[in-house]
Write a structure and sequence with these properties.
The complex is a heterodimer of chains A (187) and B (102). With 187 residues, chain A is α+β, with helices and mostly antiparallel strands. Chain A has 2 domains: 3-154, NADH Oxidase (3-Layer(aba) Sandwich); 157-187, no CATH class. Chain A has helices spanning 3-9, 23-34, 53-61, 80-87, 91-112, 125-131, 162-165, and strands spanning 45-50, 72-79, 116-120, 138-147. In chain A, strands 1-2-4-3 form a 4-stranded antiparallel β-sheet, with helices on both faces. In chain A, helix 1 (3-9) crosses helix 5, helix 2 (23-34) packs across helix 5 and helix 4 (80-87) packs across helix 5 (91-112). Chain A is globular. The relative contact order of chain A is 0.20. The relative contact order of chain B is 0.14. Classes of the chains: A alpha+beta (187), B mainly alpha (102). The structure holds flavin mononucleotide. The site of flavin mononucleotide has 12 residues of chain A, from strand 3.
Chain lengths: 187, 102
């Protein structure tokens, strides 16, 4: 699958088939995450792969943004101490940004493997940290659910019209049509 | 085990476990909603309703009215998440499903 197809066809999947995800496929996703860019190359991320049903159930109970029980969750955590020591006072923000880039790599790699994913930010950080037994300086920033999607696949939530959000040279410059973009909204 | 709906045995330990998880969900939701968009409030309430029915199902306490309500709850969540219209009507249908069965 080429990258642009993966980008356009990816949807946030919130219903998964019961089938588990092969460990080597989860390994591919984590490898993709590790090779994401890193601000100042701080390399402050940790990835905790959760597949045990009792752990997933416990995570779900403190994650209001998690709507069904997925076969796997990858928790993307930032070592804030390392982020600050390598990235200066802005290190925490860099760590957070790194987590987002890593998450996007996971989503696209999963799409290429035929897997569905959803990024989850609505969870109680302290409780997830406790459940995952992270040390104090390691903070879970994003959870990514992973599994084989249940049919039917979700419809794409609309994007704003391109003419509203794409600008050429300056904010007031209408950019969409000059860049060959017509319409918008649907992929 | 205690007799439940239609004398199906109720799994009290399972029920207690499920309710404890629901309690965590409610507290985590309250915490999150302090900073989340206002429309997440109705969504979290419907999700709590759906988790409560799941807990009752696992404990052997479900009935056809709850099954019907569950279906409308799931639809309401999808409507809110995808930006589709009809959330309010689906919530009304949840209440109808339960009240009509009484
Ligand atoms: C930072 C971030 C946090 C998100 N948190 C949640 C969440 O807690 N629960 C959820 O179901 N979806 C969550 N999402 C998914 C968005 O709702 C979804 O990406 C958006 O509706 C667009 O849909 P699409 O991903 O299918 O294109 C999150 C997405 C991002 C980027």
């Amino acid at each position: 699958m080429d990258v642009i197809t993966a980008i356009l066809e990816r949807r946030s999947v919130r219903r998964f088939a019961r089938r588990g995800v092969e460990p080597e496929k989860l390994g591919h996703l984590v490898k993709a995450a590790i090779w994401a860019p890193s601000g100042s190359n701080i390399q402050a991320l940790h990835f905790i792969v959760v597949t045990a049903p009792d752990m997933l159930t416990a995570l779900k109970s403190v994650a209001p943004g998690l709507f069904s029980l997925p076969p796997a969750v990858i928790a993307i955590c930032v070592d804030r101490q390392r982020a600050m020591s390598k990235g200066g006072t802005g290190g925490s923000l860099l760590g957070m940004m790194d987590a987002c880039f890593a998450a996007q790599n996971i989503l696209l790699a999963a799409q290429a493997e035929g897997l569905g994913t959803c990024v989850i930010r609505s969870f109680h950080q302290g409780s997830v940290r406790t459940l995952l037994q992270c040390p104090q300086e390691v903070v879970p920033e994003l959870l990514v659910t992973v599994g084989y999607p249940e049919e039917p696949l979700p419809r794409a939530p609309r994007r704003r019209p391109w003419s509203e959000v794409v600008h050429l040279e300056r904010y007031a410059g209408a950019g969409a049509s000059a860049l060959g973009l017509e319409g918008g909204g649907d992929p | 085990m205690t007799p439940g709906i239609d004398d199906t045995p109720v799994d009290l330990a399972g029920l207690g476990e499920g309710l404890k998880r629901l309690l965590c969900y409610l507290a985590a939701s309250a915490r999150g909603l302090l900073t989340e968009p206002a429309e997440y409030g109705p969504l979290r309430l419907m999700e709590a309703a759906s988790r409560l029915i799941e807990t009752m199902q696992v404990a052997g306490m479900s009935d056809p009215a709850l099954e019907k309500a569950f279906h409308h709850i799931e639809r309401s969540k999808e409507q809110l998440l995808s930006g589709a219209a009809g959330f309010g009507e689906s919530v009304d249908a949840v209440l109808d499903a339960i009240l009509e069965s009484e």
